[in-house]
Amino acid sequence: MSSLAVVFDVDNTLTPPREPMRAEMVEALRRIRVPFHLAAGSDLDLVVEQVVRPLECAGVQCSFDAFVCNGAERYRCQIRDGAEITSVSCFRLRDHLGERTFNELLRALEAVLAEPEFRLDRSGVPVMGERIIDRRSMINVAPMGRPARMTPEAYAQRQAFVSFDSKSGYRLRLLERLRRVIEPYRESHGLRVTLGGQTSFDIVVEGYDKRFPLRTLLSEGHRPIVYVGDALFAEGNDRAVLEFISEWEGPGTCPVEAIAVRDWTDTLAQMQSRGWLRDKGER
Ligand SMILES: [Mg+2]
Question: Do residues 106 and 195 both lie within one domain?
Answer without folding.
Answer: yes
